[in-house]
Amino acid sequence: MDYQTLNQLIAIRLKNLRVHRQLSLDRLSEQTGVSKPALAKIETGASNPTVSTLWKIAKGLNVPFTTFVSDDTADIQVARERDTTPLIEDDGKYIVYPVFPMTGSQPFEMYTVQLLPGCDYWSHPHQSGVRETIWVYQGSLTTKIQKESIVTDAQEGVSFRADCPHAYINNSPECTQLLMTIHYPNF
Question: pTM of the entire structure?
Fold first, then answer.
């Protein structure tokens, strides 16, 4: 999927959710912390929202992140990173591939993530009870969870409650690659 198609998918899903919940753009802005003009641009497909912005919207609407970026209609899904449109943050240093979305019977979503050297990406808190599990398969990752810093190298992982501020940092000279699963126990 190219970026234009992805933006249109995000636009349609956001507008459908807002209309279904009978929310004005003003009310949606209050719930998400995203400005009304930014939401209007996203709904028309005129904006390429950042990962941070989509997380804010997802949290404000109490839906999984992949609600906006996945095609979850198939009974069987085969994921190929090369066929997935990445979401990019931190000046191109944080690259997220949403490979498996959450579905009705599957209360988690899965991503592959690349952090280029110098990446310092801060994530907003997720909904209450949400848990992240990260497995590093190349490089080294520093995960900051509130005041703690945990370093995981290749073939190591970390799991934590993600309903607090947290960050992913690559201080190494090589690309860090990881598998991230986000579990939504209350969905």
Answer: 0.68
